[in-house]
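[job 4417] fold queue: 2 targets
>>> target A
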Amino acid sequence: MLKIFRSLIIFFILFLVTSIILIQVDRYGFFKRDKFLYNYVDLYEKINLGLKKNSETIVLGTSRPYLSFNPDYTNKNIFNSASHVMLPEHYIYAINSYTQNLNVKEFIIFLDFFTANQNLKRTNNFKLYNCLYKKKSICKFKDLFSLYYNWSNILSSIKLMFSSNKTGLYIEENGFLKSSNYEKIYSKMSRKNWFKRVENDYKKRIFNDANFDFGKNSNYLYFLNFLCKVKTKNNIKFTLAIPPVHKKMLKIIYNNKLNENYVDWKKSLILVNEKCNINIYDFTNLNLDDDEFYEISHIKEGYMNKIQDVIINYKFNIPFKMNKEIVSNSVLFFLRLCFF
C-alpha cells in the first residue's frame, strides 16, 4: 500500500512539473492564442489566430506564401493564414471557418502542383482541432496526452524555455513568419548544399509513389467547385495564384514523367475561371535568378512583394500569365526542357 501511495505521489509531482514547463513555453498557443512558436505551428492554430484579427483579406497556401507573403507590404487589412501544408480539404475547412467572419471580403489562395493531390497523405488531425476549439466537443484524454505529454514534447519544450533566442521564433501578429528566421535555419549550410538538400528532398519525398489523378483519387476538383459556390453564395472575391518555382523543380516534374499531369493541373484551374470568373495568376518563370529563391522550392520576400504589386496593387512590373494564357505557357516550358 505504501509503495502504491509513493508511486502516485511521484507520478503527480512529475505530472505537475511537466505541466508547468509546457504551460511556461506554451508552444501550441493553448493558453495564450495571440502568437505561437514557428517550429510547431499548426494549420488550425493559425486559423484561430486569423479569426481574432478580423481581417478583410485572407491569404491561404502552402509554405511558399507562408514564408514570404508579408501583409505589411500593403496598406490593406490582410492576414497570412498560409501553413506548411494545405491540401484541398484544408482549404475548404479554412474557407468555411473564415466565411463565418462577416468582415472577410477576399481570399488570395496560392496553389502548387506538389500539394494539390490528396494522395500525398499529408494531413493533420481534424479530430484534435474539433476537440480543442469547437463548442460542445469532448476531448479524448489520449489525444491531449499525445499532444502535450510525450518525451519529445517535454525535452524540446525544456530546450526552448532555456533558449536565449526563442523570441526570434515567433510568428508575427499578421500571421507572417519573418523570412530572416528561415534563413537562420540554413545559415550554417553553403548555398549549393542548401539548394541540393531541398532538391533531393523533393525527389525522394514528394514524388515517391505519388499518383496524380486529380479527377478520381482526390477532392481537388471538388475544392475548385466549392470556390465557385462560396463566391456566388457569399459574394466573396477569390484570387488564385501559382507562385514561382525554380527551374530545377520543374525539371524534377519532367524527369518523373509528370509533365502531362502538370499541364492537366493548370487546365483544371482554367475551368474554374471559365465557370465562375475566378482569376488565376501564373508566376512560374524560367528566367528567375537564383538570388530570388531561398532554394529550389521557396521564393524570397522581395519577389513576393512584386507579386503583391500585381495581384493587389495592379502594378505589372514582373512577367506573369493570366487565365487562358496559363496552359500555353506550361506547354512552352516543357518544349524548352526537351530541346534545350
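>>> target B
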Amino acid sequence: MNHRPHRTRVKTAVAERNKSSLPYVLLLIFLALLSGQAQAQGYGKGGEVHWERKRWTHDELPATLPSPVRDAVSDWGPWAEEHGYGLLLDETRQVFLAVEKRDRTAAKQLKVIDKTLELIEELALAKESTSSPTTFGSKSGSPAERSTLAPDEEQGSAESEGARWGRALGFDKHRVPVIALVHDHETLNSVLRHWMALRPELDWQQDVWKNHVSFISEEPLFAVIVTRDEWDLDHETTALLTRLMLKRTYGPLPRWIEAGITWQVETRLYKSVWHFFHRESQFVPSSSHSGWERELRSMLRRRQDCVGLFTEAAELNTKEWRDRDAYLAWGMTGFAMEELEGRLPQFLHKLRELQNEGARIEQPDGSWIYDISFVPSSADQFSALADLLDDDLEERALKVFKRGLKRTGEPR
C-alpha cells in the first residue's frame, strides 16, 4: 500500500520536470543539429585555403601571402575544389596539408607538421644555400626527352627545359610543398592525373607507377598518403615532410643520405621507424620498427676492420630492403650529423654540387642533357665528408657504433 503512492509521486515529479525543461531540451537538440552540420562541413568549401583562422577561396588569395604560397595554391586549388578538399597552411607558411573537408584528423596532422618542422630547423636540415642556383636547360631549345620521376625515387634521365628543370631538381628553396591525405585509391588516382596535367612532358603509361601507401614528387613539390592503408599516419607525415624539405633545399641526394636522415628524424621524434621507402604495402614485422640501436651494436661489436664501413652505408638500395643496410645507413647519418654539427648543410650542399657536375652530359650539337639518375660515387661522397671530418671518420664511426647509439639515433 505504501509503494503505490510513492510510484505515483515519482511519475508526477518526472512529468513536471520534463514539462518545465522542454524549451531547454529543444534548444539542446537545435544546438546539436548545428554542431553536426558544422562537423559535416568540416573545413568549409572545397578548394578553400585556411591559415590562422582565416579562409579564402583558392582563386582569391590576398596579395599579402608570399608568392610561393600562391604558386602552390595555383597548382592544387582546382583539384581541391573539384574533390572537396581544403588546403590548410601551417602557421609558419611553409607547408600545405590537403584534407577532405570532413576529415577530423587534420588538426592533429598540423601539429605533427609543426613539430617536424621544429626538428628540421633544429638540425639545420633545410638551411639556405649561400651559392646561386644553377640554371639548367638545353642550348638548342629542343623538345625534352621524357623523364622518369616515379614514386619513392624510381628515376630515369631527362633533357631539361630551361629553369623549369632547375626548379624540379630542388633549386628553388622557397617552394611550399603540399601533403595530401586521401582516403582511397580512387582519390589517389585523381591526384596523379592532376599531377600529370601539371607535368605534360610525362607519359602516364611509362612514367607513373605508385605503391599502395604514398607517392612523392619533386615538381610540383608534393606528397600524397592513402590514410586507410597507412600503418602510422604520424610517422608517414613526418617522413614525407622531411624528404620534401630535403628535396626542396638540395634536390636529389644519395639514397642512404635521404633515407638515413629521414629515419633519424623519425627516431628522434618517435624512437621508432615506420617509413620504408619501397616496401609498398607489404607487411612489416613490428620488430623492425624499433631496436635499431641494439641491432647495429650487435652487428658490429666484433668487427675490427673499419675500412669500407662508409661504402657499405652508401650502397643502401631502397628498392630491396635489408635490415642490415638500413641500420648502417641510419647509424652513419646519425654519426655524421653529430660530428658535423652546424656544418651538415655544408656537406649536403657539396653533395648537390657533385650531383650537378656529374649529371650534366654534353651533346655533340652543343646542347646537353641532365641525367637525374646520376649519383656521385661513394669515394666522392667519402671525400666530401672527410674534408670536414678528416680521413679517420670510419674508425671513429665504428667506435661510436660499438659503444652504442641512443634509441633516438644520436651517439652516446
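[job 4417] complete. Note on B: The radius of gyration is 26 Å.
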